[in-house]
Amino acid sequence: xxxxxxxxxxxxxxxxxxxxxxxxxxxxxxxxxxxxxxxxxxxxxxxxxxxxxxxxxxxxxxxxxxxxxxxxxxxxxxxxxxxxxxxxxxxxxxxxxxxxxxxxxxxxxxxxxxxxxxxxxxxxxx
Length: 126
Description:
Layout: H1 3-21, E1 36-37, H2 46-62, E2 70-76, E3 83-89, E4 108-113, E5 118-119, E6 123-124
Antiparallel strand pairs: 1-2, 2-3, 3-4, 4-5, 4-6
């Protein structure tokens, strides 16, 4: 390949490939993390609605947190039926905080045992 052709190939690659590497990371959304607005209880499957309601009550009464400011995703352990809730503060979905794992220090995980009704202490994300 001649030097002239090589230079053209390098210039072509730079002009058309560089923008691909410079794209901004897409904004984090509730859907991209599998979270649902906590107060939209009807959006959760029927078997989870009671757990989401219990969580909202616990947040208000015991943690002094407004559940209306949070999105939640959850996992239920297969053998123990322990619920693990991942709580995303609405701030986490603002575009200016898309790269911050826990903006404002308000996102946390909490577990709940439906047999005993006991919630763990919140574990705030690092």
